[in-house]
Write the structure tokens for this entry.
Amino acid sequence: MATDVKVPTLGESITEATIGQWLKQPGDTVAQDEPIASLETDKVSVEVNSPVAGTLAEQLFKEGDTVEVGAIIARVGEGGAAAAPSASKEEAKPAEPRTGEPEATVAGGAVNPAGAGEQLRPREEDAEPHDAALTLSPAVRRAVLEHHVDPSAIKGSGKDGRITKDDVLAAAKDKDASAPAQAGAVAEAKAAPSAPAPSAPASAGAQRGDRKEERVKMTRLRQTIATRLKEAQNTAALLTTFNDVDMSAVIEARAKYKDLFEKKHGIRLGFMGFFVKAVALAARDVPSVNARIEGDEIVYSNFLDVSVAVSAPKGLVVPVIRSADAMSFAEIEKAIADFGKKAKEGTLSMDEMKGGTFTISNGGVFGSLLSTPIINPPQSAVLGMHRIEERPVVKDGQIVARPMMYLALSYDHRLVDGREAVTFLVRVKEAIEDPTRLLIDL
């Protein structure tokens, strides 16, 4: 007798999700509480575990399908010999010859030219049942198709040996490095006496033949990001003000104490701890940046919950550091490192991303020089950090090179006045350029 696998409760106000990835295929043996599927919600990925031990007998939905909370998405048969393949309608059909097919469809709705799917991704029935490395997420599949690499030849560095997007990019880089030698060998093999070798026209034709498009359904997280960002533009009176900050003092402090800090706390001393502390200090003088509008009321918070924008494989997520104003440098750095690890693994929980009174976004880690970040509703302000680069500045009448960073504060002008926004940025600038202020609360 088969046991139903249902979509679990996903959190407050969340009624549906998207099947992002099947971690087990029909016929695979599963243990009790072992993950068999990954669901994408508006904010996080949630794994669905098998309620019993047995064999996955049936998948009732495909990757990319939308399912409601409580819906039955699969069935697990008893023992290890359930005839699951017959439950899969697509696998039950006899294999049709693929020669002459105009296109092949991959999971998630993406379409690639005929034969591309066969060349780039081995069919699941040909893979080893327990080979987690070949259970590819939508983002990894897309990278495989874009870079034309063989996933079966890639050693996965993710959880349970799964292949990550970084693994695909590394394989593509190695492939590109070896391409010149392979191209030379191919050219020698094709250089037969009877071949006139019209190389230039053939190359041009090959380039024209490579022109193609791919349609990939937006993930639920990406759809939510798009909706919320557009909502912020439609609702708030957005304005951005800028300043720059000399990072010399912070860089010197990190260089002086980084080894002792890591030895004592087991975590590296980064820049974000200084900025979180500086924001907490500045928010005391300008409380409106830490407030929000609800109807015709302004809600002020006497605490600072900082949403830290973190890049995840499926989009930007903003986990929250609770009561950051009361935390030490070490506690802040540990929280940020933990969030970064969880975001990469897709294990952030709903509770870790709820709330937040202020956001800090560090585009500098990607090389951004300047930007105008968008606030995260219902918050009223977001601080954008950017890359550090040496620029000529005037100090004591002399032109000198200093490591400078541009800061951008985007805010809701309905609540935060221009004078307050400028004052807030100046307070942050003063605290970063003289970190002693963070210790004596100036």
In short: Confidence is low (pLDDT under 50) at residues 81-133, 189-195. The domain at 221-440 is CATH 3.30.559.10 (Chloramphenicol Acetyltransferase). The longest helix spans residues 165-190. The first strand starts at residue 3 and ends at 6.
